[in-house]
Design brief:
single chain; 465 residues; alpha/beta; Rossmann fold; Helicase, Ruva Protein, domain 3; five-stranded parallel sheet; 18 helices; 44% helix; disordered N terminus; nucleotide-binding; activator; phosphoprotein; P-loop_NTPase
């Protein structure tokens, strides 16, 4: 729903389409105003009424990009979604450069439009959180984090607010998004900063040793227990205990952890006396914890004990230009370590870094930059230096030569197309069938979204898109 942000300006000069789009949006209770020219659009947005602007690029009096540039230059508080029937990757990148939130290529479905607008509303909500609580310049660094995107500003804000509390924090996010960095940031921002920060990866320790790792053991309690040993909870006394991959804990240990959280006391494996500890628990998982609860793998009562302050770390692909900030920092750091001269990325490399899906998130970016620095040298990273799957060496390069004129097919037979054309047709048909959703089209085709982006860039460079 559009709760709290209901005004949408639709800039579309085709009445039949504007009526269809307006009907799509009214289902979600948005108030839609329609204008047909760029001049009318600029007048309306200058008044400050619309929060979402759906902007067609082909307008009768000016190009829609001029409207977008004016909105960006004036710093108007609205999210712009560009709509065009003449979409291209370069045009999309240019629109994003001038502050467009998203880019839709006609035709698109009601669901596609609704989801895009809802996401734009959420972006505005995050921006307002940042504006309300943080009046200084957006932070580009925060403890171990690098990035100035709106989604990360919201994360920094939650960490600021939660750090002084004793409440348990539950961090979620894909692998490689920085969950341990988040836990350390909370600890370092908190009054416990001078006390220990102890981290345990619950998925990396054998299940039969996990209880001992958390709570400790006494001598002789099991084979190999040759001396008393403190567990992580005792070592973290006064400080913070970070339990990474918490959903990996087996059911019996979940019960003991719940009792420990409720009482603040623990008993070592093989021991017979309770020990009191004072610590703060931060836990994390790359799974959906609620699904783990629903499917019986994680205790519901433990979930609600832990899930007091939730922090979700966005994947790198949803962090705007943070990939360039992080990549630039890593490039200079690794170049210094390896005594190399790198200081920047070439413009086409920056675009490829932006467009890549980054399934391994920041951890994958670190590996890519390290590979470049170790194997190459120079002051600028070029496309030829990128390793697979970003670099062209990871994807067969097709030279789109025209079919020889001497080739003929028998009468009644289907004309033979060059292989690249067959591939291009299949990809574009899949994208159209998925209403422009390239990651979904890539999944159905059995390839990565980055492959589609690279191929479309290649076709466009050769004038075939």
């Amino acid at each position: 729903m559009a709760a709290g942000i209901t005004n949408v300006l639709l800039v579309e000069d085709t009445p039949s389409l504007s009526r269809v789009y307006a009907e799509y949006l009214k289902k979600d209770r948005y108030t839609v105003r329609i204008v047909e020219t760029g001049a009318e659009a600029l007048t309306v947005v200058s008044d400050g009424a619309p929060r979402i602007v759906l902007l067609d690029l082909q307008l009768p009096d000016m190009h829609g990009m001029e409207v977008l540039k004016r909105i960006a230059a004036d710093g108007l508080p609205c999210a712009v979604v560009v709509i065009t029937a003449h979409g291209s990757v370069n045009l999309a990148v240019e629109a994003m450069r001038y502050g467009a939130y998203d880019f839709l290529v006609k035709p698109f479905s009601a669901d596609r439009l609704a989801i895009t607008v809802r996401n734009a509303v959420e972006r505005l909500r995050l921006a307002e959180i940042v504006d309300t609580f943080q009046t200084d310049i957006a932070r580009t660094r925060f403890h171990g984090f690098i990035g100035s995107s709106l989604s990360m500003q919201a994360v920094y804000r939650i960490i600021d607010s939660a750090a002084s509390s004793r409440a348990t924090v539950f961090v979620t996010g894909e692998s490689g998004t920085g969950k341990e960095v988040c836990a350390e940031a909370i600890h370092r921002q908190s009054p416990r900063r001078e006390q220990p920060f102890v981290a345990i990866n619950c998925g990396a320790i054998p299940k039969d040793l996990m209880e001992s790792e958390i709570f400790g053991h006494v001598k002789g309690s099991f084979t190999g227990a040759v001396a008393d040993r403190e567990g992580a909870a005792t070592r973290a006394d006064g400080g913070t205990l970070f339990l990474d991959e918490i959903c990996e804990l087996e059911a019996n240990l979940q019960t003991k952890l719940l009792r420990f959280i409720q009482t603040g006391t623990l008993m070592r494996v093989g021991g017979n006396r309770l020990e009191k500890v004072d610590l703060r628990i931060i836990c994390a998982t790359n799974r959906d914890p609620l699904r783990e609860v629903e499917e019986g793998r994680f205790r519901e009562d433990l979930y609600y004990r832990l899930h007091v302050i939730p922090v979700h770390l966005p994947p790198l692909r949803e962090r705007e230009d943070d990939v360039l900030e992080i990549g630039g920092h890593l490039l200079k750091e690794f170049a210094r370590e390896e005594s190399k001269a790198f200081v920047r990325f070439a413009p086409d490399v920056e675009q490829m870094l932006r467009l890549y899906h980054w399934p391994g998130n920041v951890r994958q970016l670190q590996n890519v930059i390290r590979n470049i620095v170790v194997l190459h040298d120079g002051d600028t990273v070029t496309a030829a230096m990128l390793p697979p799957p970003l670099g062209q060496s990871g994807v067969p390069v097709l030279h789109h030569a025209a079919a020889p004129a001497s080739l003929h097919v028998a009468p009644g037979k289907r004309a033979i197309k060059p292989l690249w054309e067959v591939e291009k047709d299949a990809i574009e048909e899949a994208i159209a069938a998925c209403d422009g959703n390239i990651p979904r089209a890539a999944a159905l085709l059995g390839i990565s979204a980055s492959t589609i982006y690279r191929k479309r860039l290649s076709w466009q460079a050769e004038g075939n898109l």
